[in-house]
Design a protein that fits this description.
- This is DNA topology modulation protein FlaR.
- The chain has 164 residues and is α/β, with parallel strands linked by helices.
- Helix content is 49%, strand content 16%.
- It starts with a strand and ends with a helix.
Length: 164
């Protein structure tokens, strides 16, 4: 099974991906970790050639779950997927989750992929609002040819609906 999960910051992509991975026994890959080379001194953006090579390595495996907000360079993932899940959670829910993640990771109760800073929190909110205005319409347009395998969910707790 090949599943591509897409949605805004705070929509629940990582949580849904991890749940599905456990239920289905399929590895999950965060697209942010394909875009960024994680380094103790700070993240370094991978060159497009490196990013694309890693993405293609993942999507040509037999089974996978990929999750992320990225949509312009991941169209091959939509083509290869058996199921595409667009998490269209309400903005208020996403805003709450962004603040919750920031607080929990800032206090050290949870480890994240990047260092939580006030600057990063501000960027998360900006990306969240920008998603509604530009990314969401672009994504819905990109996904038009894939309607037969697209599920649009407003809640990331719907794993039963997906795995049946």
């Amino acid at each position: 099974m090949k599943i591509h999960i897409i949605g805004s910051v705070g929509s629940g992509k990582s949580t849904l991906g991890k749940r599905l991975s456990l239920q289905l026994g399929i590895p999950v890959y965060e697209l942010d970790n394909v875009v960024w080379h994680r380094h103790e001194n700070g993240d370094i953006r991978n060159k497009p050639e490196v990013r694309d090579k890693e993405f293609n390595r993942i999507i040509f495996k037999e089974n996978w779950i990929v999750e992320g907000v990225h949509h312009t360079w991941t169209t091959r993932g939509f083509q290869e997927a058996d199921l595409i899940i667009f998490l269209d959670t309400p903005m208020a829910v996403r805003n709450w989750r962004i603040l919750k993640r920031f607080t929990v990771q800032k206090l050290g109760f949870e480890q994240g992929n990047y260092k939580q800073t006030w600057s990063m929190l501000k960027k998360m909110y900006q990306w969240n609002y920008q998603f509604e205005k530009s990314s969401k319409p672009e994504i819905l347009e990109i996904l038009k040819p894939h309607q037969q395998k697209l599920k649009i969910l407003t809640d990331n707790n719907c794993t039963k609906e997906i795995t049946q």
